[in-house]
């Protein structure tokens, strides 16, 4: 996943600096229907944190002035990734944030990665943006040869784009999610499913990426 390509650069986004007031931030957010804005240093090069509209509204309800620095309600000061961050680092960092700030390796501010753009990046990384079938197969967690067996079966008919596994801690069963190359025909898919189930693996679902693609 290329974080640089997925991110929106600083010059293309709205932000405030430490010199701006909460009123300045609120005006920008209301005009653009934003939930939050990045706060940068006065030079516009260093990331400081985020300011959220909801916290400004609470201040208004409490009768407090908005003519103070945005840093009075600075949040997420440690929530950021780098342009060279890995997929897993990004997953754990962005979580439920509407966006996450992206820094260059020298810690200067590069831009933001929105949740939507990150989702699209995942779809591309897992080849879900290409038409094809996706199998979800259940296996015992202690069955160390499951992926090898299933891969050999699939390899007789088509190639594998991606494999993702997850474990249910309550049952100790693994879900193996495999996306197949787009050249796999329905007839080949049927043979693959049949042969996998003959090996006592349960095919939980067969999906087409068309039905799960992002609009």
TrEMBL record:
Name of the protein described by the UniProt record: CBS domain-containing protein
PROSITE patterns according to UniProt: CBS
Domain CBS: 8-68
Keywords, alphabetical: CBS domain
Key word Metal-binding present: no
Upper taxonomic lineage: Bacteria, Bacillati, Bacillota, Bacilli, Lactobacillales
Pfam families listed in its UniProt record: CBS
Gene source species: Aerococcus agrisoli
Domain of life: Bacteria
